[in-house]
Design a protein that fits this description.
This protein is an alpha/beta fold. The chain is built from 27 helices and 19 strands. It folds into 5 domains: 4-196, Rossmann fold (3-Layer(aba) Sandwich), CATH 3.40.50.300; 204-331 and 537-563, 3-Layer(aba) Sandwich (Rossmann fold); 341-412 and 498-525, Arc Repressor Mutant, subunit A (Orthogonal Bundle); 422-485, no CATH class; 576-631, Arc Repressor Mutant, subunit A, CATH 1.10.10. It is globular.
């Protein structure tokens, strides 16, 4: 057996482990059931990858995140390690071959979604594998009190029956004490080795700033700290708006959301990773598996939906150990906005039944059938067809996904079908004068035999690969061929795929999960209230508040958060008369904005704003059309 440090150096080019990694790895190699609670950036994946490489056999990794599975498999393959992932949209025949490879092909890692464990074929083949370890990633998903509870995680117990001699490692970056207890119980651990790294990040300043003009604040933060940054926003539209705003202000920025084509996602990601762009403006679809050490600021433009998700997103900052900032910007309307976004759109059981029935009808799934059928899904078109509100419908689909009725895979792609309507001779005469289209048309002819006879579904990405060009070029050529009456083209865009996991039983299907949905809705209310408590509490150190949420006690104030820095400042006795006179003196010279006065006066922002408000109320000053202040008599 190779020594763990040699494996680390050979495949990852590191010469030492992060805190707790080596202890966890040794416990796993010794065959112990192991629980690892490591904050974001703590190096969780190596805790199961290195033991699996050290021992004979294959490691089965359970993960709910398709993107993360693909990312880890690609990284392992790049290092010459044989790994595969069984994601949705793979045919039974392909699964059959892939599982055979796991048994006979010296593969070291098989990544599975928990839903796959329900398939008899998968269960039968796992019995035949030489499994050296079972790794449960995002283990908090097994707890009904976890941040992203997925009932399918309870299927993991099957693995313990199929491979009773294999030990299990559970890994998570966000778990309260109640969730930790639940994970250990659900995975049937006996005398587990438990490793918990403190969630404390001494170099990270947690700031909660009240700001009516958030655009101004992000501009000033990013001009002060010019290193790499992430701004998290609520929706796709804001990613574009804020990145465009920053570019106009001379701050390089790009954007990322779930609806971008994969090639654009990759391009934008590389621009940011390579520091060609200072700022990544993104929805919460961004960040999983990203380990960029020099991120200086993470700014939440909108309130996060839970402390768990906030801690993970904020944890992407300052991994190089230098001082860094996790900022939440809030204003008076945010509390209502977060309630509207996450609480007022919690779907009822009846609404979920309605969405499920309509979804089955939309894809013409017969009663009692449909299990493991995958369909391209245009969410906006679905909502429009049945007159569903977007947010309410989306939350209903998320609950159906979380409770393993469906699998909702968010991915943008072009959906194309076409038929060549011109005759063979006309097509080839056309190509004689349109040389730029020859390779693409000939590639399609070779790939799709019946393209002259009937409407044929086309994989534009594969056509592009065969013709050695880009997918956008293929789409452009197809549009021109339609215009020139060579083909009849059906081109639409899909931003997701739906896989039906259970056979259709309408209300019966939903009745089985009704109690679970109610519990999840209640949990969401508790999580949103915890966020509101966090942003409102200006008496206790922000770091202490976060660490207490995750069960850490007797923690000292950090000294650098927005609470500590306010209380730490030498108390300047507020002399309201002096402050009032100083503001009046400034305005006698010229009209000024509140920002200009804050920069010129040696008082806190709050005290200056309060005084401005008082002077307005007493008609000593007035506000101009350009939002500056002037003396009333001027």
């Amino acid at each position: 057996m190779q020594h763990p440090i040699n494996i680390l150096e050979r495949y990852w080019n590191f010469t030492e482990f992060k805190p707790l990694q080596e202890d966890i790895i040794n416990a796993v190699i010794e065959g112990e059931d192991t629980f690892a609670l490591l904050p974001t950036g703590g190096g969780k994946s190596l805790c199961f990858q290195i033991p699996a490489l050290a021992k004979e056999g294959i490691c089965i990794v359970i993960s709910p995140l398709v993107a993360l599975m693909k990312n880890q498999v690609e990284r392992l393959q790049e290092q010459g390690i044989k790994a595969m992932a069984l994601t949705s949209g793979i045919s039974s025949q392909q699964i059959d071959t892939m599982l055979d490879n796991c048994i006979y092909g010296n593969y070291k890692f098989l990544y599975l979604s928990p839903e796959r464990l329900q398939q008899e074929l998968v269960q039968d083949r796992i019995k035949q594998m030489n499994v050296n370890l079972i790794a449960v990633d995002e283990a908090h998903c097994i707890s009904q009190w976890g941040n992203d509870f997925r009932p399918a995680y309870k299927n993991i117990m099957l693995l313990r029956q199929l491979q009773p001699s294999a030990n299990v490692i559970a890994l998570t970056a966000s778990a309260t004490p109640k969730v930790v207890e639940d994970i250990i119980k659900e995975l049937d651990f006996i005398n587990p080795k438990i490793f918990k790294q403190s969630f404390s990040r001494p170099n990270l300043a947690y700031l909660v700033l009240h700001e009516d003009d958030k655009y101004y604040r992000i501009e000033s933060i990013l001009k002060k700290y010019t290193a790499s940054s992430i701004i998290y926003v609520r929706n796709r539209k804001l990613t574009l708006e804020i990145s465009s705003f920053l570019e106009k202000k001379g701050i390089t920025a790009t954007y990322y959301h779930g609806g971008l084509p994969n090639n654009e996602k990759d391009a934008h990601m590389q621009q940011w990773l390579n520091n060609q762009k200072q700022v990544m403006v993104a929805t919460n679809a961004f960040g999983m598996g990203i380990d960029k050490p020099d991120v200086k600021t993470v700014i939440h433009f909108n309130l996060p939906e839970s402390i768990e998700s906030y801690f993970q997103e904020a944890g992407r900052v300052g991994r190089n150990g230098e001082k860094a900032f996790a900022v939440i910007l809030k204003n008076n309307s945010d509390e209502q906005l977060v309630k509207n976004q996450f609480l007022s759109v919690l779907p009822t059981i009846d609404f979920i039944k309605q969405v499920y029935r309509k979804l089955s009808n939309y894809f013409q799934i017969p009663y009692g059938e449909g299990a493991y059928s995958t369909c391209d899904f245009d969410f906006n078109s679905f909502c429009k067809t049945y007159n569903f509100g977007n947010m309410l419908c989306y939350n209903a689909l998320l609950l159906l996904d979380r409770t393993s009725i469906i699998n909702l895979s968010k991915q943008f792609q072009n959906q194309v079908s076409l038929q060549i309507t011109a005759s063979n001779s006309v097509v080839f005469r056309y190509l004689e004068t349109h040389h730029d289209k020859v390779l693409i048309v000939k590639s399609m002819l070779r790939m799709y035999g019946g393209i002259f006879d009937h409407d044929t579904k086309i994989n534009t990405l594969r056509v592009a690969e065969k013709a050695s060009t880009k997918e956008v070029v293929v789409i452009s050529v197809l549009k021109q061929l339609q215009k020139d009456e060579i083909i009849a083209l059906n081109l639409s865009k899909t931003d997701a795929q739906i896989t039906f996991i259970e056979p259709r039983e309408d209300d019966k299907t939903i009745n089985r999960i009704a109690d679970m949905i109610e519990q999840q809705n209640n949990l969401k209310k508790l999580q949103v209230n915890a966020v509101l408590d966090y942003i409102k509490n200006d008496d206790i150190c922000k770091s202490v508040q976060l660490l207490s949420y995750f069960g850490e006690k007797n923690v000292n104030p950090c000294g650098i958060c927005s609470v500590c820095t306010t209380t730490k400042k030498p108390s300047k006795t507020l002399n309201t008369k002096t402050l009032k006179n100083q503001i009046i003196e400034l305005l006698e010279t010229k009209d000024l904005s509140s920002r200009e006065m804050i920069s010129m006066l040696d008082y806190s922002e709050k005290d200056i704003k309060d005084m401005i408000q008082m002077l307005l109320e007493h008609s000593i000053i007035s506000i101009t059309k350009t939002n500056t202040y002037k003396l009333f008599h001027k």
